[in-house]
Design a protein that fits this description.
mainly beta
Length: 119
């Protein structure tokens, strides 16, 4: 399976970020997997943003839930992330990840996409 993130590299404060993770080699509706978004700000550790399951059920980081939406595009086999009310603290490398829901393992990662929030 391959995961490829895409989206704008530079966004302005207060705008909404929209990222797409295109999945190949597997269907996002397979019932053994969650599809997860994580991010890594410069000089910091990974932060879990949220996930979507094969049924479309979502679960978000409580600290980000008011600004986050994850959805599926089954016709294009893709996962989308929207993050609103951006601030410079949202600057990070954003990754999409496949999680095996039988054991919790993150078994496939996208390369990540750099997002910079700046005016």
């Amino acid at each position: 399976v391959q995961l490829q993130e895409s989206g704008p590299g530079l966004v302005k404060p207060s705008q909404t970020l929209s990222l797409t993770c295109t999945v190949s080699g597997d269907s996002i509706t397979m019932n053994n997997y969650y599809w997860v978004w994580v991010r890594q700000p410069p000089g910091k550790g990974l932060e879990w943003i949220g996930r979507i399951g094969y049924s479309g059920y979502t679960y978000y980081n409580p600290s980000l839930v008011s600004r986050t939406s994850i959805s599926r595009d089954t016709s294009n086999n893709a996962i989308t992330l929207q993050l609103s009310s951006l601030t410079p603290e949202d600057t990070a490398v954003y990754h999409c990840v496949r999680e095996d829901n039988r054991n919790g393992w993150y078994d496939s990662w996208g390369h990540g996409t750099q997002v910079t929030v700046s005016s």
